[in-house]
Amino acid sequence: LVVEAMQIKYSDRPQLKYIKMDARNMSEFQTGSFDAVIDKGTLDSILCGNNSRQHATQMLKEVGS
């Protein structure tokens, strides 16, 4: 729902891409695809769930590679 809403809201900016995926497994991207990653909401959400430390660690490893 959020992805679709953002695509509509920013339809005048075709260079922006919104992709739904698991932040713990971002194999769709090659290693080193990003110079920087800024996130707060996703990490907060992960830390509220079951196995939060394990899932947070997986996410941070994905973002860092």
Automatic annotation (TrEMBL):
Gene Ontology molecular function terms on file: methyltransferase activity
GO biological process terms held by the UniProt record: methylation
Homology family: Belongs to the methyltransferase superfamily.
Entries under InterPro entries matching the protein: Lys/N-term_MeTrsfase_sf (IPR051419), SAM-dependent_MTases_sf (IPR029063)
Protein name: Methyltransferase 13 isoform X1
Keyword Cytoplasm: no
Keywords recorded for this protein, A-Z: Methyltransferase, Transferase
